[in-house]
Structure formats: structure tokens, C-alpha cells
Design goal:
Length: about 400
């Protein structure tokens, strides 16, 4: 049902066929002014055509917003998430999930700036992204109207979408005439592919789906050795060269791509209730995740490290489900950031045919004491005889349980 309150809509606009159809549909269905917002998150595409397409579809130049968000994306979203070692269902590094709150936040900021009373997105009614966009929008602007065309319109087939495009003189690229073999979402952290040829989880991912990594079998036979420096849990340098957050991740992406690192074939549980098979490529993020755990291994106390690992699945699920701006995520973030105060130093890694191998780690704040762990006898602050009492105290309840079982003949 068309909301009569809508006069100006800010649309998350990629310049592709689907969002161009949405743009025209908003104009014709709501009879409203449309403002487009295109975010550069490092997806690797030229964004000039998005501006040109918007102009072609009648958008005023002052209503076209294109912003380079790469540094903000990595600094304020990716890095905080990596401090938590977040991985949804143990393996997915949340490349798509973490981008949505930033895009939605910018949609709201632009809506406030231009006097927009609604925002719109191109997420389908079956996926997670609709939830992520809209939870962020409502958190930041409770009275905003959200228009989700895929849940409203009656364009139910590819043929109907193409017919609508032709009717309204929306240019259709030749490769868009046929049904796409799979869909792709990309940013500086990852590229994800899903749908069509990937829908059967029993079938191997075709080689042509991969875009961010070479095959591990085709990677060089000689390993690549690098070092990554950390300060307060964030990577700051590669091989001793200081880099900005986005530049550093881009460099790690290059290293990961060339060594066949970061491929993940996953069947995941979507927040909306169904299982989905996707293929993710996260070359730089995979390297960064291994390196961060390595520097934590010598700088985090056992209790702090284990508490973080206990909280990580909940933190990762909050991001996956779209609750970046929830109080519980912010509370967990404060705890995580506190744990990173002394997570600093250097990790050396060997990259080889799809693998990331830690070969060294050092820190001025290291808790590792070689004198304590050495097998050689010496003047150390550990008396082997103390272990006997420690073991007996920890065994007390087990012995008590064992005695009861023996008494009952169990």
C-alpha cells in the first residue's frame, strides 16, 4: 500500500539494473522525488556510471550523492569487529553483514540533510539485508518510512522486470538479458556469491564464480612471508610500513589473492529462517583474523581470552542479524575494546597455497615467560611440587562423584 506521506525518498543506489528499476518504480508508484546514494566501500567498480545512470533517469544533479566510505568502513566497522575475532557460525567473517549498517546510517544522514521522509533499498524479501538495513534505519530515525520494493511490487519474474525496464527506457546491458547465473555483493572486506548455480550445496563451486582469489593449486610454489604490526588490537603496518586502515586491508587483499587465500563455501542459517548456500572470498580478512589471534595469544590473559571466545558467537550473531546499533552490541564492544589495551606487537606469517601460517609473534606487552615454560631446571617462579596440591584440589569433586558411583554400584 502506497504511503501518502512520502514526498522525498533516499534510495541506496548501485547504478545496476535492479536499483535503476527501483528508482523508476518509486517515481511512478509514489509520485515522489528520489535522491540517490551510492557508497564506495571498495567494491572495485567505477562509480561514475552510477551518476550517469541516475541523471539519465531524471535525477537532479544535486540529488545524487556518491561518497567514498572506504576508510570509515574499515576503521569504524571492520576493525572493531575483528578485535572481537567475530565469525558467524564459526567461519563466516561477516563481509556483507558489516557493510549494511554503514550504508543505512548514511541513508539516514542524507535523508535528514535533504528533508527526506523515506529511505529505500533493493534487498529482497527472502534475505538478511532487508533486516539489516531497516533495523539500522529505525534505530537512527524512529519515524522514518522504509520502502522495500521487493516486498511491495508485483514484478515477480525476470521477464516482468525487463519489461518494466523497456517500458520506461531503462538501458539493459546485453549480459542482463539472460538470467544471471549467480548474484554478487562486494566491498573492501569480501566478495560474496549466491543463487542459481550455487543453490545445490552438493555441487562444487564453478571456477568462474571466483573473482577475488586465484585457486590455491595455482598459487606460487614459494611461500610469501610478511609481518603485521598491531596497536590496541588494530593492524597498523605491513612489513614495517605504516598504512591507513583501508590501504592496509587492500594490501592484505592483494597478498591473499595472489596466494589463493580466503575462499569459503558455506551453508549458513539466515536470520529470516532458511538455510542458504554461498561462496565467500575474504583474502585480506582471513590473513588479518589469523594474525590478530596470534598477537592476542601472547598479550591477553587466559581469563580475558576465554571470556572473549565465549562472547564472540553472540557478538557475531548480533552483526549478522543487523543489530550493530543495538545497546547489547555496544556494551559488548566496550568490553572487547577494553581487552585490546595491550594487544600490540608484531606477527610474522607465511602465506602458502591457501594457507595462513603463524611463524612468529612478539610484543612489548607479552605475557609469555620463557623461564616459566622451559623444561630446563633453573631459577624460576614455579615449583613443580605445587602442582600436586593444585591437582588434588581440582580432583576433589571428581573423587567425591566417583565414590558415590562406587557406593551405588554404578
Amino acid at each position: 500500500m502506497v504511503d501518502k506521506r512520502v514526498n522525498k525518498v533516499v534510495l541506496a543506489y548501485s547504478g545496476g539494473l535492479d536499483t535503476s528499476i527501483i528508482l523508476k518504480w518509486l517515481q511512478t508508484t509514489y509520485n515522489c522525488e528520489v535522491v540517490t546514494f551510492t557508497a564506495d566501500l571498495g567494491q572495485g567498480e567505477e562509480l561514475g556510471p552510477a551518476r550517469d545512470k541516475a541523471l539519465l533517469l531524471g535525477i537532479k544533479p544535486e540529488n545524487i550523492y556518491i561518497e567514498d566510505l572506504r576508510e570509515e568502513f574499515v576503521r569504524d566497522y571492520v576493525f572493531p569487529m575483528f578485535r572481537a575475532n567475530a565469525a558467524y557460525e564459526g567461519v563466516y567473517l561477516l563481509g556483507t553483514s558489516i557493510a549494511r549498517p554503514l550504508i543505512a546510517k548514511k541513508l539516514i544522514e542524507i535523508a535528514e540533510k535533504v528533508g527526506g521522509d523515506a529511505v529505500s533499498h533493493g534487498a529482497t524479501g527472502k534475505g538478511n539485508d532487508q533486516v539489516r538495513f531497516e533495523l539500522t534505519a529505525y534505530a537512527l530515525k524512529p519515524d522514518v518510512v522504509v520502502i522495500a520494493p521487493w516486498r511491495e511490487w508485483d514484478l515477480r519474474s525476470r521477464e516482468q522486470l525487463l519489461a518494466f525496464a523497456e517500458q520506461h527506457q531503462i538501458p539493459i546491458a546485453k549480459d542482463k538479458r539472460g538470467e544471471a547465473p549467480f548474484s554478487v555483493d562486494a566491498n573492501l572486506l569480501h566478495a560474496s556469491s549466491e543463487g542459481k548455480v550455487l543453490e545445490d550445496p552438493a555441487q562444487e563451486v564453478p571456477d568462474y564464480v571466483y573473482s577475488r582469489t586465484i585457486s590455491p593449486e595455482d598459487a606460487p610454489d614459494k611461500p610469501t612471508v610478511i609481518s603485521i604490526d598491531f596497536e590496541k588490537g588494530d593492524a597498523t603496518a605491513i612489513d614495517g610500513v605504516k598504512l591507513s586502515p583501508a590501504t592496509l586491508l587492500a594490501k592484505l587483499n592483494d597478498l591473499g589473492r595472489d596466494n589463493g587465500i580466503g575462499r569459503l563455501d558455506l551453508v549458513e542459517n539466515r536470520f529470516v529462517g532458511m538455510k542458504s548456500r554461498g561462496m565467500y572470498e575474504t583474502p585480506g580478512g582471513t590473513i588479518l583474523a589469523v594474525a590478530h589471534r596470534a598477537i592476542e595469544s601472547i598479550t591477553l590473559d587466559r581469563g580475558a581470552a576465554h571470556l572473549k571466545d565465549q562472547l564472540m558467537p553472540q557478538y557475531a550473531e548480533l552483526i549478522y542479524n543487523g543489530f550493530w546499533f543495538s545497546p547489547e552490541r555496544e556494551m559488548l564492544q566496550a568490553l572487547i575494546d577494553k581487552s585490546q589495551e595491550f594487544v600490540a606487537g608484531t606477527v610474522r606469517l607465511k602465506l602458502y597455497k591457501g594457507g595462513v601460517h603463524v611463524i612468529g609473534r612478539s610484543s612489548p606487552y607479552s605475557l609469555y615467560d620463557q623461564d616459566l615454560v622451559t623444561f630446563e631446571e633453573g631459577a624460576v617462579a614455579y615449583d613443580h611440587r605445587d602442582a600436586a596440591g593444585f591437582i588434588k584440589l581440582n580432583a576433589l569433586r571428581l573423587r567425591t562423584l566417583g565414590q558415590r558411583k562406587k557406593k551405588l554400584g554404578l
